[in-house]
Amino acid sequence: MATSNLQQSTLPPGNPGLPLIGETISFLTDPEFTAKRQARYGDIFRTHIFGQPTVIVSGAEANRFLLSNENRFFTATWPKSTRVLLGPGSLSMQGGEIHRSRRKLLAQAFAPRALASYVSTMAVTTRQYLQHWEQLSQFAWYPELRNYTFDVACQLLVGQDGGAATPLGEWFESWCEGLFTIPLRIPGTKFNRAVACRKKLLKEIEQIICQRQSQPPSNADALGLLLQARDDDGEALGLEELKDQILTLLFAGHETLTSAIASFCLLMAQHPEVLANVRAEQQQIPLEEPLTLEQLKPMTYLDQVLQEVLRTVPPVGGGFRQVIQACEFAGYQIPVGWSVLYQVGRTHNDPNLYSHPNLFNPGRFDPEGNEATTFGYIPFGGGVRECLGKEFARLEMKLFAALLTRQDHWELVPDQNLELIMTPTPHPRDGLRVYFHPWDGSR
Predict the structure, then answer these.
(1) CA-based nearest residue to 109, from 220, 231, 255
(2) Which residues make Cβ contacts (< 8 Å) with residue 36, sequence separation at least 6?
(3) How far is CA 294 from CA 119, 302, 307, in A?
(4) In this predicted model, what pLDDT tens digit does every residue of 362-377 receive, in sequence order?
(5) Which residues of the chain have pLDDT under 70?
(6) Tens digits of per-residue pLDDT, 320-338?
(7) Which of 175, 259, 356, 375 could be joined to 315 by an S-S link, Cβ 3.0–4.6 Å?
(8) What domains appear along the chain, each with residue ranges and CATH number?
């Protein structure tokens, strides 16, 4: 059905905003953008952001409709700034059969055997950072957590130590800042700086790849596995695509994970009774060296806490889909060529899905009364594009939380702004400033 044949009355209600830029600026700067419009129009409305007419939806049924109709009505899409910076070879940009084939190939880096081999490296790096933070005593934790997750990602994805302290870390930060911005190639803009840093990052990644290709094969990290991996036709990834895929994996293993871990740290400081319960469970579970995946499995209460963290502050607020065939949802027509954005955070706060959703309650994920539903709990997305590295993220979150709560205590510095900046991922405005010291079991 062509857009020109649709009656205006059949479109979702809404306001396209200003010419050309629509409501993009408000979308990027106003954390209540969606809430305000949902209060006025309901759970489905239209706007114009990132140069596209866009329908924004929320709720489990909307998620089911979108995520179950990939390649029928929808295909994944991203704002132009994100498409340019991730690159055409990124799994996120691929669709159809090529996406299926590449996803199968990349999944080898996150298979159970690979994850089990990552645990000891994660544990060593985590303990090093805990000792470093004890020495700092008072600091802004969020920037430190960004360094921590980037170091882990560099080690386990490309086999590079201390990545955060190298130019790679600096370039990566500037690159991340441009991912969800207005794509203006004007000197001084975040997007322009990010494009320049992408070139530097790809050059560095190419050098790492070429160096590794001259060495004996290794299964110690994701790059080693991917260099040996072959698709269904027996072909290896080409250099240009491999560079984009590695850059995407670094982003996935760093940006969203930093947000999730920072949210855990913030919420535990705000809910000491939950932290006490986490520590009580930890005291019942001995850890032996070297730490293994099996030792983390009995931490069932910690699992519930981390699930509730991801419900309360999902690292990814939503996902874009491009309409490839006109369709209808909730009585409204959605034209071909438009974008649709589903809302993770709004779904996770739906009182029809979760009792008292504004309360932080890990018990809602108790196996006896689990409130989560397939499309009502989607911190990692869903369908054929569910986050490929979700088990990697869960592993790092759980290992970090276990070692942190066993060893250290932290308190929020008073009079700081804890409001969450939502782009590119949620993080406290003042950087999550804390007092940090070893835990002696009495607090």
Answers:
(1) 220
(2) 30
(3) 10, 15, 19
(4) 999 998 888 888 899 9
(5) 1-9, 442-443
(6) 999 999 999 999 999 999 9
(7) 259
(8) 3-438 (1.10.630.10)
